[in-house]
Amino acid sequence: MGKPHKVKLKSMDIVKTDNLVFEYIRRDDEGNPTGVTTALDHVNIDVRQGEFVGILGHNGSGKSTFAKHLNAILYPTEGTVIVNGMNTTDEDKLWDVRSSAGMVFQNPDNQIIGQVVEEDVGFGPENLGVPTKEIWSRVEESLRAVGMLEHRLKSPGKLSGGQKQRVSIAGVLAMHPKCIILDEPTAMLDPSGRREVVRAIRGLNDVEKMTVILITHYMDEVVHADRIFVMDKGKVVMQGTPREIFSEVPALEALRLDVPGPTRIAWELKRKGLPLPDGILTCEELITEIEKCR
Amino acid sequence: MPLILDHVSQIYNADTENPVKALDDVNLVIPEGQFIGVIGHTGSGKSTLIQHMNGLILPTSGNVYYNGKDITDKDFNKKELRKHVGLVFQYPEHQLFETDVFADVCFGPGNIGMTRKEAEMAAFDALRKVSFPEDLYYASVFELSGGQKRRAAIAGVLAMKPDFLILDEPTAGLDPVGRTEILDMVSELHKTAGITIILVSHSMEDVARYVERVVVMDKGRVAYDDVPREVFSHSEELEAMGLAIPEPSKIARQLVKNGLDVDPGVLTSEEAADSIYKALMKNR
Predict the structure, then answer these.
(1) Residues B250 and B211 in one domain
(2) Where are the beta strands (DSSP E) in A99-145?
(3) B238 in any annotated domain
(4) Tens-place pLDDT, residues A258-281
(5) Degrees (nearest 5) of the Cα angle A113, A116, A119?
(6) Which residues in B have their CB inside 8 Å of a CB on A?
(7) ipTM of the complex
(8) What architecture is the A13-259 domain classified under in CATH?
């Protein structure tokens, strides 16, 4: 059924968290402590080199807090976060950690600073002290990887949302990270913008072998992921392949999530008594399976 | 009273070398009581369009009429218009600023001249209409979840008792159940309070499920203005405008091509499943 699952060599973990706990103290208007919130509760997530990992969870489940630990914006209260072999609490390694784990956020307008696309993409490596000649080759390869090379001389203000977000991704790529973490990169985009960005992300993983961690509220964006982690109340509550995860329709609904559109239709048909397999993920798979029922 | 846009155009930078036609001869009649969806890719003119509906932007040519009066007239009372046509911006929770939810919801009605007592009554009413949890009425806005903040912000506009409620992407950034909850709530406002709803959305699935009329914007013009079933039958044209048809429709159309007797006009996953099931049973 469908395309065979990608077989990947077991190699080094790029990201490994060991019983990661993050707590913060809530305060009232006067600044007096009123309680402790556990935003991450013994999270163990490992991501291998070259993997595409999806992270799902409702608003407030801890996804973004988790992401902020991967490039040392936040530090664990308990447990450890290892990125590319480095402990994120190791102060000497702060910049190595940050250049290993590149982050892309929701709003492209907050991430683009240059007046010209290529200047914006070159800002990161320049900041890292990369020699000028190499900056230019990195700018070129990064823009090519996200399909934005032809727009290199444009002003970012003239670009569409999807194009801006691809420039943000190129800016991160130019710093040659070991993995790229995208926190709801398509939340503000229209359908074609979403398509462009999702295609660019899949290309990075398939072609450039970049390790990708994609946090999203759109179920269809992670159907091609190698593995999915589902978070709730700061804990990892489900993990598995997309097929395994999206077979659990009621469980996902209870977690305020959903399944991809074709999976939903297959599930409805199955309830009516059609002999369809669990975990259909794409339109093509659904159509093939329906044809078998004729 | 209907809201009428009559040959409305909006041209930015008209006196420069690169004039931008944000709106190009838009004609729309919005009668009271409808639930309308507005779709279009980024830059198609959706946001400019809705800002014309409550006088935040005035057209460079053409007229907007509310209640039979031309809102572009110099002596037209725009404050009065904004009482009747409420606009909820994208990420409205960024505009919550009072110390607690209740005070924030009271701000709008106070600002349009209601007495303190009236404003408080209106705020209670609005918070109840958006099903905001009662135990959080006096909570700080920082303690709320994403969906709760969004509800509080919508209540702030509702408290001004508008007849028209325009929502610009009210579900952006919410989790799937949060999206459904907000749209169910908006649908309920339409049904029970009789408020006219204009919903701007990037989700074809949401538009297909909830609205009765779809306005498609493309390059500042109204490309389609019809019932969802009719609008979403233009698959290729919508695709060319950077849009899409809802996924269930896409699947149904492919099955029709394959010779299965499925209704190509289905819009939701339930309709698609029903139609596919019937077609398969007929074949047996």
Answers:
(1) no
(2) 101-104
(3) no
(4) 999 999 999 999 999 999 998 899
(5) 70
(6) 40-43, 99, 140, 145-147, 172-178, 202, 204-205, 242-244, 246-248, 250-251, 254-255, 258, 260, 269-270, 272-273, 276-277, 280, 283
(7) 0.85
(8) 3-Layer(aba) Sandwich (3.40)
